[in-house]
Amino acid sequence: MVALHEYSTKKIRDILDENVRLKRSVKELTVLNDLARTIGAMHDPEKIMKKILQRSIDAVDAEQGVITLVDTEAVNSMKTFIREMVKTGKHHPIHLNQNLLGWMQIHKRPLLMNDPQNDPRFRGVEWDQDIMSIVCVPLMVKSRLIGTMTIYNKRKETLFTEGDQRLLAIIGGQSAQVLENARLYEEEQSLLMMQHELEVAANIQKVLLPDKSPDLNGYEIAGKNITAQLVGGDYYDFIPVSNNRCAVCLGDVAGKGLSAALLMANLQATLRSQTPLANSPKDCIERSNQLLVNCTASDRFMTCFYGVLDHHEHSLTYCNAGHDPPLLLKNELMHLKADDLVLGTFADLTYSQKTILVEPGDVLVMYSDGVTESKNKHDEEFGRERLSKIITMNRFLAAERITDAIINEVCSYSGGCPQADDITVVVMKRVA
Asked: 425 forms bridges with which residues in the sheet?
């Protein structure tokens, strides 16, 4: 009878223990199912982290928790770049100890400490005085640690259990991929927004360039610009000065992309504002340089060829502020060289100007360095010599067709190699 009683008692105890385990399993499954359903359709990483932390804290009856995502792209892979905290207890918010993050980076497995102050794995570490117990679990995506979830202080002054650690580890394992997907979604949306903004900027920049060539008696003028990216730093313009004079200019901002495009817009606005006020090309460039120095970073600059054509007197008076010398084809090719410095670097610079006569049949070609420095698959530059030959071969064509011939030849020469710089060509021809 005694043996039967002991057997019955043990059986009842086993049943009760099994019942406890089943209840705990049901609770865990309920927590996991509820969490998966809640965060599965969310895209905001901050909201997802808050939800994960709140459910985790409730599940193990803790005081507070923090999710820390680490920047795996940084030189220091321990750098924290996202943190989210949920607090339910009376203590002040606890800051994640960097030693704990370092341990997790090395071991990548759950960590339970019910006496962190005396834990031999962290000898010499000074813990926040409010920390009584810790469970820290890794957030892993394809064997890569993307962050940690740390839960602090079991409430009612009890200790965390192995079951708490196991549940939090499962939550961390299920949540890591959701967080990573949300981060990738957020990055994708940011890239789409940036792409949209660049497209808007490109449309604005197109408006800044001339939509048609000036109608000058006895002259043909044409220009074309191809940016290496959606927006670029090359600029050309035709600015009326008087009934018989028109300014023709071509500029190139150092660099490319959005930053260069912003400076290009500044250059365009500056030259257009100063052209009506200036007495000469030299005066216009000096005024413009003074303004550009005041609003340009010390490591940025612009080159610019600026000339004023008098189409009654058939003369071109020009300044060259550090730009590639335009090619003037008369009986032979001439380079409109100048030794003056670029714009936007030094204030109070003095610029020189020169005047040339434009005779019937003369062809003037202005270009950016994206033309001559364009490379083929052998890393060889297009060069000024090839440009000179194309101008000479096509001198009898209309200005627009000469422009197209130059750009087509440059594109053909590159043979499909990525365009490294903006390409701009302006051709002015006096009709014979």
From this structure: 224, 367
Select from 158, 188, 218 the last residue of a domain.
188
pTM over 0.85: no
How does DSSP assign 37-77, residue by residue?
Answer: HHHTT---HHHHHHHHHHHHHHHHTEEEEEEEEE-TTSSST
- Of 259, 207, 265, the closest CA to residue 235 belongs to 265
C-alpha 223/C-alpha 215 separation (Å) is 13
Binned at pLDDT 50, 70 and 90, residue 339 comes out as confident
| 105 plus 179 within the same structural domain | yes
Higher pLDDT, 45 or 38: 45
Beta strands 354-357 and 315-321: pairing type?
antiparallel
Final residue of a structural domain among 188, 218, 234: 188
Instruction: Look at residue 6 and tell me if it is in a domain.
Output: no
Can you give the C-alpha Rg of the chain in angstroms? 36
User: Is the pLDDT confidence value at 17 over 90?
Assistant: no
Q: At what angle do helices 162-208 and 2-39 cross, to 10 degrees?
A: 10
Same domain, 235 and 124: no
Residues 356 and 316 sit within 8 Å (Cβ to Cβ): yes
179-218 pLDDT, tens per residue? 888 788 878 888 888 777 777 777 777 778 898 999 999 9
The CA-atom distances, in angstroms, between 120 and each of 115, 117, 125, 179, 304 are: 10, 9, 10, 33, 69
How many CA atoms lie within 13 Å of 397's alpha carbon, on the beta-carbon side?
15
Predicted confidence at residue 75, as pLDDT, reads: 42
Closest CA to 283 of 266, 306, 312: 306
Total of domains in the chain: 2
Rounded Cα gap, residues 228 and 419, in angstroms: 5
Using an 8 Å Cβ cutoff, are 81 and 70 in contact?
yes
